[in-house]
Amino acid sequence: MELPPALLRFEPHPYIALGAPYGRISPFCLRSGVVERLLEAQRILQTNDSDLWLIIFDAYRPIAVQQFMVDWTFADLLSHFGLDAQRLTAQQRSELVEQVHRFWAEPSLDPATPPPHSTGAAVDLTLADTSGKPVAMGGEIDEISERSSPDHYFEDPTEIGRRFHYYRARLRTAMEEAGFQQHPGEWWHFSYGDQLWAFYQQHPTAIYGQAQ
Ligand SMILES: C[C@@H](N)C(=O)N[C@H](C)C(=O)O
Ligand SMILES: [Zn+2]
């Protein structure tokens, strides 16, 4: 189902802005059981701090878009390091591919291993203030760096580091209390009912497979 207006979203959608092939499909869709839990997470968040809101960065992602974003991220890394795709050594290529797949799931077409967002059960999100502006979390969503680890600022003694950790903890606590599982390497990625959730929650199987 389409996300309700009670949940803020990034506009324009970041991957549509990059030209990702959604066709007529909305990226702001999720399983209804997942939407209910998101609303519950926002309610929990606001019982502790009424000035904070959830803001959705990305939700449902067709496999063609997963492939597009894997290719886009590879090209972005090439340009970041000033490398030419035609002149890569085998080792350089495999190191770049490994970096991409530390953050992006394989765009698998096998129904037994669907990419998380293709199930409609995974969501990338952050916190916003009362004006709808995303809160500084000490790293950008989709950033390929050590800062993306949820506990990156855990022992940071600086005031700003403590603030980043505080907001990351607020997001995680609200989402976990509503039943979500956080990705161990990405502070912004949560799911309910997909394979990653089942693995960490020791649930015998995922609740949701690839959505059509
Ligand atoms: C990179 C991020 N947007 C993301 O969603 N990562 C997970 C692991 C995925 O690709 O499903
Ligand atoms: Zn994600």
TrEMBL record:
Cofactor note: Binds 1 zinc ion per subunit.
InterPro entries xrefs: A_A_dipeptidase, Zn_M74/Hedgehog-like
Gene3D superfamilies: 3.30.1380.10
Cofactors, names only: Zn(2+)
Residues the entry annotates as binding Zn(2+): H117, D124, H189
Active site: E186 (proton donor/acceptor)
Site feature location: Transition state stabilizer: R61
Keywords: Cell wall biogenesis/degradation, Dipeptidase, Hydrolase, Metal-binding, Metalloprotease, Protease, Zinc
GO terms of molecular function: D-Ala-D-Ala dipeptidase activity; metallopeptidase activity; zinc ion binding
Catalytic activity: D-alanyl-D-alanine + H2O = 2 D-alanine
E.C. numbers: 3.4.13.22
Listed CDD domains: D-Ala-D-Ala_dipeptidase_like
Presence of the UniProt keyword Lyase in the record: no
Swiss-Prot/TrEMBL GO biological process terms: cell wall organization; proteolysis
Function: Catalyzes hydrolysis of the D-alanyl-D-alanine dipeptide.
Family that this chain belongs to: Belongs to the peptidase M15D family.
PANTHER family the record matches: D-ALANYL-D-ALANINE DIPEPTIDASE (PTHR43126)
Name the record gives this protein: D-alanyl-D-alanine dipeptidase
Organism: Gloeobacter violaceus (strain ATCC 29082 / PCC 7421)
